[in-house]
Design goal:
Number of domains: 1
Order of helices and strands: EEEEHEEEHEH
CATH topology: Transcription Regulator spoIIAA
Number of strands: 8
CATH class: Alpha Beta
Strand content: 25-35%
Distance between the termini: 17 Å
Helix content: 10-25%
Shape: globular
Number of helices: 3
Largest sheet: 6 strands, mixed
Protein name: STAS/SEC14 domain-containing protein
CATH architecture: 2-Layer Sandwich
Strand order of the largest sheet: 1-2-3-5-7-8
């Protein structure tokens, strides 16, 4: 059942990929072959602050429909970690290789980090973690 939390607020096509902002979560679909680093988040962080500031509880869902990589150490310095209203990371994987790579990422995350095989399950998780 859809709720007010499922209302799409904004879609942004940025350098790294497409971002979908909802009331309590945002979904990232990163472009094929990208390597995500902190420096490449410069256009995303202001949007996160715009939508969630320090008042609205929110979660991040990485919908990994494309193959890309992340510098895992950058999780340690990610600005989301300092936001008290940030609930955690949900990663939707579609292959065994991707599932294996997030095992490493999970060790560097400073907030809860969950893996899902279905986007709907990840969205449902955001509603429980709010």
């Amino acid at each position: 059942m859809k709720t007010e939390d499922d209302k799409l607020i904004e879609v942004r096509n940025l350098t790294l990929g497409t971002y979908y902002f909802y009331e309590k979560y945002f979904i990232a679909e990163v472009n094929e072959g990208e390597v995500i680093t902190l420096e490449k988040l410069d256009d995303l962080i202001p949007l996160i602050l715009k939508h969630y500031a320090d008042t609205k509880s929110f979660s991040y869902i990485s919908n990994r429909i494309n193959s890309h990589s992340i510098a895992p150490v950058d999780y340690l310095f990610c600005p989301l970690n300092t936001m008290k209203n940030f609930n955690g990371y949900g990663v939707v994987t579609y292959s065994k290789a991707c599932e294996k790579s997030i095992v490493v990422e999970k060790h560097f995350a400073r907030k809860p980090f969950y893996q899902f095989n279905d986007l709907k399950d990840a969205i449902n998780w955001t509603k429980k973690s709010a």
